[in-house]
DNA sequence: TACAATGACACA
DNA sequence: TACGTGTGTCATTGTA
């Protein structure tokens, strides 16, 4: 399906539709519809037989249908799929739009992806920017591109499924789940998370004092700042700023403390009367800056907060967000999330997800036995750590993150002895990463190959001594069948280290800590080993979460229809719907009378996701679920 | 003045 | 020896 390029507010959607076979081959001539909303809704009316809509990008195409009151059951998102397929051949951060995919297919210059625009500043919706004087294709030409690229993507998915070196029999599942994720993200943005401004105000006022005028600091914060200054010998108004790490560091050193940073964990070790005030100031200051009244003004409209998710925005397949920090909302702010009258929130999170994923992907029978229980760490402790749950947790987290410090060596030895398959799984992934290899999630999502910079450092060509680690060839990056000439672009790595090289490297754990700047060969190798070690788990957990969301979305829609309460296939009716998602946690907004069924759907979806992603496994993925009026009341 | 880097901390 | 993964956003600080 393609749309004619009209204004988003235009109530009449027109565009082109063509029916394809399962192989992506046209089964009918293309047809123009001057009322796409109605056409699509009619095709969707028999949900059991709903088509899988193929379109350029859900992110821009689907909101137009949603605004017209039309929900779709399934889609194939060309852009999201292109990302997954490019990743399979080691190409990250390359343009993934329909236009770009089509250009690669035809061997033409590849246009950059359009810059994502905030919903409020959207004008023309067509994501094809004219470049080099070429004209923007019309909707019918777009349809031809769409059909060609879609067929090619199906072919590449099949190729990946039979790749002997990096088999991904489930890649089609991943593509379907990723596409469904796009639908979920668009629907969450459309519905919005119920957000009560008065409750948000109450939290802020309680902690910070009344809302100040303009940009002034709230009263409590300003007062606290003065007290902090006084505690370190500064008179009020004498220019001490607790928000300045430099000044705080200077004040503390002047008071005789030798510290390297003003991080909270380091400050807590200091015995000084000003520290407690300073820590309180930092906490409140952050709350005010990140999620205070300015944030509320910018992001809460008509009782709804609308997160802008970036599906698959993290290389591991986790979602990212744009602009409003939806994934970093402080827990205390959950008090502002209150269901509408007559509605409830179903809150569910998958506890201990990552160790359970490790148990499932590694097939370790001992760990799987522990993961069949409700508290994996307690079961692990009982089996191998003399009942010491804290030790068991520390050990397993250390194994998944690659930690070796802090005296956990002996704990890791226990794991290695008692759960050899699980430990071998993560250690194999780490060794592959250290050698420059690529690892994959359960459903076949590929991690980025090492950057040229990493290769230089590890091979000792970067002016740092210590080159003793062999780097694998490019065998991992391009499966033989995939490496056709159209994909021979060398400039594939600009993205991979964008953050890694920008931050301060391994020294003192600054910033993200995954950089290679200033690293010696061995450090860089082990750093990448930790990344790939974690990738196989985090990305497989993301696989599971994506499928969970996709299944849940379908079941919630069935719930609305079956009950006869909601309009079912429509939008904005009274069917339960997803309103929030954070890695391993979902929030569903539901009419009260459907709350129990919605909660049941959440639980059953998790189990279906388990079967789809991990097949036959004794591992369970128990959910903590709660039906509440306020998000903060869940656990 | 505008932009980039830094340090810190929120989330999973 | 020591080495915990992945993000986004803010205020401050440094540079062009």
Structure description:
With 635 residues, the protein is an alpha+beta fold. The protein is built from 22 helices and 14 strands. The protein has a four-stranded antiparallel sheet with strand order 12-13-11-14. A three-stranded antiparallel sheet has the order 1-2-3. Residues 122-133, 464-514 and 562-570 have low confidence and may be disordered. The structure holds a DNA duplex (12 and 16 nucleotides).
- In the sheet with the most strands, the strands line up as 12-13-11-14
Helix content: 40-55%
Backbone shape: globular
Describe the sheet with the most strands.
4 strands, antiparallel
* Uncertain parts: 122-133, 464-514, 562-570
Mean pLDDT: 86
Count of DSSP helices? 22
* Separation of the first and last Cα atoms: 44 Å
The fraction of residues in strands falls at 5-15%
**Rg (C-alpha, Å):** 26 Å
Number of strands: 14
| Broad structural category | alpha+beta
Keywords:
635 residues, alpha+beta, four-stranded antiparallel sheet, 9% strand, globular, DNA-binding
Short account of what is shown:
With 635 residues, this protein is of the alpha+beta class. It is 45% helix and 9% strand. The longest helix has 43 residues, at 521-563.
